[in-house]
Structures are given as C-alpha cells and as structure tokens.
Design a protein that fits this description.
about 475 residues, alpha+beta, Beta-Lactamase, Alpha-Beta Plaits, 3 domains, 6-stranded antiparallel sheet, 5-stranded antiparallel sheet, 15 helices
Length: about 475
Amino acid sequence: MSHLLPPNETARLAALNELDLLDTPNEPVFDRITRLVTVLLGVPKSTISLIDTDRQWFKSQVGMEFSESPRDMAFCAYTVLEDEPLVVEDAQSDERFATNPIVTKPGGIRFYAGIPLRNSHGLVLGSLCAMDTQPRQLTPQEQAAMQDLADIVIGEIHLRERLINEQKIRAATQQSLTALHQSLEQRIEQRTRELNLVIESAYDAYLSIDAQGRVLDWNRAAESMFGWSRKDALTRPLTSLMFPQGLTCDDAAMPLTCDAIRRDGVRLPVEVRLKSFEVNGRPRRSVFIHDITERQQLERLRDQQAREDVLTRLPNRRALDERLPEAMARVRRTLAPLVVLFLDLDGFKRINDQHGHGMGDELLREVAQRLQNAVRETDFIARWAGDEFVVLLEGVTTEALEPLANKLIQVIEEPLHVGSATLRVSTSIGVALFVPNAAETPQELLKRADDAMYNAKRAGKARVALARPADTPNPL
C-alpha cells in the first residue's frame, strides 16, 4: 500500500477526519451531484469517494452495490496519489487495473473518470467519479462538466471547513469567557486588566449593563457592530441603542436569537448570551452579542440549492414533492381545479448523440425558459429528471386546458439556433386532473400523469393524452 500513499498522507487524513464526513448519512447536496454525473455522461455508476487510511468510502453513490471498498482496489487512490484528473478508457488495457477484482469480475469496471476533491489547503480528500462497464472515451465537454460538478462538491467542503473553523473560534472564545465568569465574583478586582484585554480583543460585541439596563461597558466589537462609539453608548439604556423591546430578565441556558437595530436603522440578526453577577453588592449583567448574518445567509443558500435544479434553475424534484401536497390540499379546501402536466421531450437523445451533452444542456435551459414564459406567473414548473418536466396548474378551466397544452407543444417545437446548429425537439404531454374527493396520494397523481405521457408517445409523440380518472381501475 505504501506505493499508493501521497507524501502529504498524514496531513490529508487529518483534514479528512476533521471534516467529519466519513460514515455519515446521505445528503441531498451530494446526491444531486452523482445523479447529474450519470445523466450528463450517460454512465450507470457515479460516486463521491473519500479515501480513508485503508478504505474507499462513498459519501454518495449511484449504481454501486456497496458503500466502501479496500483502498488498494480503489481507482480513486490513484487520483489522490497523482493529484490530477484520472481517466481510464479501458481498465483491462491498463496495467495498474487489469488484474483488479472489480475489473475482472463479470460486469466489472472498464471505464473510469475521477476529478480530485481538494480542501481549502489543496489536500486531495477523494474524488468525483464516473464509471461504466464498457470502455469509452471522455470528451472535453464531458470532462469540463465533471469539473464543474466537482467544483460544487469542493465548494461544499470549503463551506464546511469555514463553519468548523468558526465553531472552533466560538468554542474557544466561549470557553475562555466561561472560565472568567466562574471566578468573576471573587476576583473581579484582580482580573480587571485581563478581562478588559479579552473583551476588547473579542470577536463578539460585549457590554455590561446595570439593573436598569444602562450601559456600563462597551467594547470595540460593539462599536463596530452597532455604530455607536463607547462614549455615545455609556449610560444609555439598551432600548435606545439596539434592543427597542429590551432583553429578557433571566439568564438563558441557550443563546437568544433575535434582531438588533444598528445606529443607522439596519436590522442585524444576532445571538445573545446573558450572565448576571454582582459588583460590591450591585447587580450587573454581561451581554455577549454574536452577529449571525453570514451564517443565516449560508443556511438560506444551502436550503435554496437543495430545492433548485443546478442546470435549469427550475425547482427540482424535492421542491415538487413539497409543493404538490400543498396544492392538493388547496383543491380540497377551495374546490378549485388542479391539473398536472407531465412533459417528456421527443428527440432529446438524438440531440445529445449528434451535438454532445453541452448542446443538450443548452437546449434544456432554453426549454425551461420557454415553459416559464408560456404559463402564468402563479403556475409551478419543476424539472423532474433528465428531459422530463412537471407543470402544476391551479384554477385552470377544462376549456382552457387543451389550448394551453397545445401551446406548450408549439413553443417547444420552435427551433433553437446555437451557433451554426439548429436544434429541434417536440414534447409529449400527459394530463392528470385532481378532484377534491379523490383518495389519491401525490405519487399516485404523478404516476397517472406519467402514464398518460407514455400513452401520448405511443400515439405518435408531440401530442397530449388525458389520464384515466383517479377512481377508475386500469383497463384489462
């Protein structure tokens, strides 16, 4: 195994373990990437692999029967070793892998492409992999697409590193402040200089208030965070500085999350920690305030990305799974009609085969934009998978339904000119109507629309097919 160890192995393993990704459950942010790899490259297998001491472990996988394998059998071990993308067009012709059990077994790996996944210090922790049981070549466009997807994974790794580093800083600061609090009452006079030094250099805003909530101390971080100088803040009540509603009178075991008001009127999301003490028998309170703006922005961004298709920027399947039950509940309450359109592009595979996946991606983005322009602003469009889309129409009359569906066929059939190429596709549409008294789940409603779409394809494509009613059994 020593011949497969990079020179920075010790630092690499330490960084991997600190990231705390090994042996953790699946996460949508990673599973989206492996699914996209299989769709964009047309391969049956894709993984996000992390190389541990003696094993390869999959944080996400598509098409694999196991979650880990020995490191000395892993193609990704060479990606980590060589610190650059690795493409093996035919593993049986490569002396490094020709005798590998995962190559020689029936249906074994013949093609492999791996993109290194680096942390913020450039250490390769694993790779984004695409695999096939048949030999093949990787086009420059496909490698660029894999690199783009790997960059998304790398961005998530860097984000987690920043969060871990922030937690370390906060934990270290809190540990120091907690230690000071434990001895503050008995040694307040002796520790004044040391306490002032810690407070003045702290990342968090610190202030001390009396029983009436008037400021007795105000550090530099508070000046920077709220825009009030120490001179302006001293003796003023908190209600006139940043907390118009005041603060709780009790010490909280957990941080309080609330909005503070800066001097310029801007609202600032913060976490507040309170600690009561006495000085010469007089009650005092220490207030530590941490700005959580960046953390909330990161959380909102991650939440948005979890519900958005990377390629088309439409809502993804997860977003549809959340929206459809809500729409069905509104139908039962308001009795307004709900229609589900299931669209599948006709001729899309031919576009990929003739012009490449990059051109296919451009077509999917254009189709998504055309669909958005063709329906109402209140309607909901999601990318289901590959070249399939789902449209939810609420409050549409049955008379308007067929013209709208035919309009969608027409706008998709309009040719798309990209450079010297002219791309043409059509679409088959399955239509399912949801009625208030139907005992039907969202999955069953989508299945009816999907079945109707396949009926449209069998009937000649580029047409609309209506699904059978929910309470009608399948015909024999």
